[in-house]
């Protein structure tokens, strides 16, 4: 199973964006809800776990060149967030897990793949 | 809290718990000045000026059944996170004025959120409440008052579900319209 598939399965992700291929390469991950902190400290290729669902997260993802967005706690993204993510070609997912659980599961997968 | 409208609701509920029957809520969005401001004014019991600093302490509350209150401390955090300002003032006769000002374009400024839904919920739960709601977007302004609205309803209770549904859509559309009008004006002059 490739990396995207194991993450989708383990974190029970639902891909919310349409017409966005999972072609971005995952290089790591970041977790946090203070957007300026994410902007300053996330690295290109990171998958970002957050509770936010407004459009600003797409701006951060595009600026840092993240590989994808994961919104936790089954929060539905705002329609304009989805629209912008689609335009920017950034895959946006939702998960039923909270930040802590999602980050823990993702940490384990990335360790198993010797990425961290 | 994820949206500023939730802070607005929290402050309004504080006002009502302090016996307020009149609320004035003003939202000012000024992209030229780069500010987003909301202002809540009530005619509740009010607070002594010397007690105002205590509002920022989560372990200070006037309610007997609660050990702490996080409403104002959370608002303070939302303001500080993006370098805004928070002002709480005791009004001379009675009542309190809360003004929160945020830099409009700051990344950590929470979105305004569903103001129409918040205000409708507030009116649905408080029959006697007199509300004045002003929303300003750059030069354009929209004003809603329950007094005027009730006279238009000609005796139909404001709390009727159909009325509330209509009101929520009406408020949301009026604010959308403000932005549209403003952008149109910019298009014409610019």
Overall description:
The complex is a heterodimer of chains A (116) and B (190). Chain A has helices at residues 3-10, 35-41, 56-64, 79-88, 99-112; strands spanning 14-15, 28-31, 46-50, 68-71, 92-94. Chain A has 116 residues and is of the alpha/beta class. Chain A has one domain (27-112): HprK N-terminal domain-like (Udp-n-acetylmuramoylalanyl-d-glutamate--2,6- Diaminopimelate Ligase, Chain: A, domain 1), CATH 3.40.1390.20. In chain A, β2 (28-31), α2 (35-41) and β3 (46-50) form a beta-alpha-beta unit. Chain A is globular. The model of chain A has no long low-confidence stretch (mean pLDDT 95). By secondary structure, chain B is an alpha+beta fold. In chain B, 38% of the residues lie in helices and 24% in strands. In chain B, strands 3-4-2-1-5-6 form a six-stranded mixed sheet. Chain B is globular and about 50 Å long. The model of chain B has no long low-confidence stretch (mean pLDDT 91). The chains are: A alpha/beta (116), B alpha+beta (190). Chain A binds chain B through residues 34-36, 39, 51-56, 59-60, and chain B through 2, 81, 107-108, 111.
Key descriptive features of the protein:
heterodimer, A: 116 residues, alpha/beta, Udp-n-acetylmuramoylalanyl-d-glutamate--2,6- Diaminopimelate Ligase, Chain: A, domain 1, five-stranded mixed sheet, 5 helices, B: 190 residues, alpha+beta, Heat Shock Protein 90, six-stranded mixed sheet, 6 strands, 38% helix
The CATH superfamily label of chain A reads: HprK N-terminal domain-like
Rg result of chain B? 17 Å
From N to C, what is the helix and strand string of chain A? HEEHEHEHEH
User: Greatest interface and its residue counts?
Assistant: A-B, 12 and 5 residues
Q: Widest sheet of chain A: strand order? A: 1-5-4-3-2
The top-level CATH class of chain A is Alpha Beta
Helicity level of chain B: 25-40%
């Amino acid at each position: 199973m490739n990396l995207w598939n194991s993450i989708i399965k383990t974190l029970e992700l639902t891909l919310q964006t349409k017409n966005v291929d999972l072609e971005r390469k995952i290089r790591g991950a970041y977790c946090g809800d203070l957007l300026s902190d994410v902007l300053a400290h996330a690295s290109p290729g990171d998958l970002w776990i957050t509770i936010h669902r407004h459009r600003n997260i797409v701006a951060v993802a595009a600026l840092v060149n993240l590989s994808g967005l994961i919104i936790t706690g089954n929060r539905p993204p705002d329609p304009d967030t989805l629209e912008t993510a689609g335009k920017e070609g950034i895959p946006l997912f939702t998960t039923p897990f909270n930040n802590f659980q999602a980050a823990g599961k993702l940490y384990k997968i990335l360790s198993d793949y010797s990425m961290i | 809290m994820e949206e500023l409208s939730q802070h607005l609701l929290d402050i309004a509920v504080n006002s009502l718990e302090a016996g307020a029957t009149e609320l004035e809520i003003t939202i000012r969005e000024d992209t030229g000045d780069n500010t987003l401001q909301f202002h809540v004014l009530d005619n509740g019991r009010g607070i002594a000026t010397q007690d105002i600093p205590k509002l920022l302490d989560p372990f200070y509350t006037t309610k007997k059944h609660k050990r702490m209150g996080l409403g104002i401390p959370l608002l303070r955090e939302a303001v500080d996170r993006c370098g805004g300002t928070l002002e709480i003032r005791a009004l001379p006769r009675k009542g309190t004025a809360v003004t929160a000002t945020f830099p409009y374009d700051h990344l950590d400024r929470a979105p305004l959120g569903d103001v129409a839904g918040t205000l409708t919920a507030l009116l649905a739960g408080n029959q006697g409440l007199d509300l004045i709601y002003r929303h300003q977007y750059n030069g354009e302004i929209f004003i809603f008052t329950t007094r005027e609205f009730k006279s238009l309803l000609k005796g139909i209770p404001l709390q009727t579900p159909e009325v509330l549904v209509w009101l929520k859509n009406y408020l949301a559309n009026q604010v959308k319209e403000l932005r549209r009008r403003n952008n149109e004006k910019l298009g014409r002059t610019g």
